[in-house]
Amino acid sequence: MVLERPGGDAFPEWAPGAHIDVHLPGDMIRQFSLSSSPSDSRRWRLGVLREMAGRGGSAWIHESLVTGAKLSVSAPRNNFPLHEAPAYRFVAGGIGITPLLPMIADVSRTGADWSLLYGGRTRASMAFLDELQAYGDHVQFRPQDEFGLLDLKRFLSDPVPGEQIYACGPEPMLVAIEATVQHWPAHSLHLERFTAKEVSTTEDVAFEVEFAESGLTATVEPGVSILDVAENLGLNVFSSCREGTCGTCETPMLEGEADHRDSLLTSAEQAANDALMICVSRAAAGCPRLKLGL
């Protein structure tokens, strides 16, 4: 899907790894990675997989969206930035290739060493093959019906100093990657999740939240999110996915300890307790009160 602004106006600047919110009928908001070139300020390209068991967003795009239709979109946000490194290994599963495309173009242009392992159910289901074939031996195409599951152990063996891994795709693949790279240096792995990961949680209990900037305090009951409470109080909060994957509702935490239930912050970031995603996270067990910068 290619987006252009009315009158040919330029889009805001963005960097590889960025995504946008797309507002669809029925108050649906969906996040899609930008897969075009950041240097092209007139066009934004999105890759949209038709999810047969999805929530209806991709189905509407595939079945009802027509050329020339107008859509509202957000400014780009980037929770998956490309860090400068001497070498990269990219792993993509299915439509997870989309955020990696501008990264690959960028590192290829700068001359960094890189390789891509790209899998999908079938070769026909794998998007952007023609574009990637231009990179030659840098890319390994591994459709499952021809090669089986991705050989992550072989592809992610023996890291070189400073090398970084960027991966995006279905949750089982990302979990397998996390298990495979335990021998890599800390902070080598960067993941982009399209859906929330499974998080082990304790039973919800009520706790108090203080919104420091607003001067309001409220109780967050079991089954109710901090985001729900903030919205009911009329606070100016931003949210999108409501499942802890997009980062829109990230809020500074001034006091307290959180039960982090998001799929975005790293373990180190969660342990620091500097911020939390108020759409899913709560106060930790034994912490009766959180003070937030909202």
Protein described:
The chain has 294 residues and is an alpha/beta fold. Helix content is 18%, strand content 25%. The protein contains 8 helices and 17 strands. The strands form 5 sheets. The protein has a 5-stranded parallel sheet, sandwiched between helices. Strands 12-11-17-13-15 form a 5-stranded mixed sheet. The chain has a 3-stranded antiparallel sheet with strand order 3-2-5, covered by helices on one side. The longest helix has 11 residues, at 100-110. 35% of the residues are buried.
Tell me briefly what this model is.
The chain contains 8 helices and 17 strands.
Number of helices: 8
Pairing-aware structural class of the strands and helices?
alpha/beta
- String of helices and strands: EEEEHEEHEHEHHEHEEEHEEHEEE
- The count of strands amounts to 17
Write out the strand line-up for the largest beta sheet, numbering strands in chain order.
Answer: 8-7-6-9-10
Task: Report helical residue fraction.
Answer: 10-25%
Average pLDDT taken over every residue: 93
Give Rg in angstroms: 20 Å
- List low-confidence stretches: none
Q: How much of the sequence is in beta strands?
A: 25-35%
Q: Give the overall shape, derived from the CA principal axes.
A: globular
Distance between the termini: 36 Å
Largest sheet: 5 strands, parallel
